[in-house]
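Consider the following input, taken from an annotated entry for Peptidase C39-like domain-containing protein (Acidihalobacter ferrooxydans).
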Amino acid sequence: MCRRRFDNRSTVPYFSQWESAALAPDIASGRARLIDDPHWSASGARTPEEYAAWANHVCGMACLKMVLATRTGRIVPTLELARIARRYGAYTVDNDAIRGLIYAPFVECVALEFGIRAEVVTEITAADLAAQLRRAEFFMASVHPGIREPQVAPPTRGGHLVLVTAAQGAMVRFHNPSGIDPATRADVCMPVTVFAGFFAGRGIAILR
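Applying the prediction step yields:
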């Protein structure tokens, strides 16, 4: 579908927020425990427990990892990025409850740490993404995590971040850090009307 709707597939490397992407269906469904992920150390976590605590919260860091890999060729582990972001207040931890990604501190973080110009965007529609992608290289869009199963209507919108790499006409193309199979991970092409059902109308524009 992407090749028919867009000029070509993206050249953006894909990274899952879970180190064992093959386990993604079982992790997403709760059949597998994060603490049992055999590749946990690749995340930059110090212990399996640290990985298990954070891996469901680092969709934004996985998106940042993709952006950095595209622009610099450098692959930075997701939890290393999360530690950096936390220093700026993009994540907060209270009694082991992790809150984030918090957009404004994240924008400050990527500017100062990586020289990336970014901007918080709110109150837009899915149809506005094409205009956003004319001024930005990427758009980190807040969507419901159920977007990996688009045939199921979500109960709410938002709560998860995907990296939108293109939007034109009636279609949106994105990388989903919590995709459960190849069709729902990299270069996912989705009608704007379907994407709209998951999109919270906000996100972060990664400017050119």
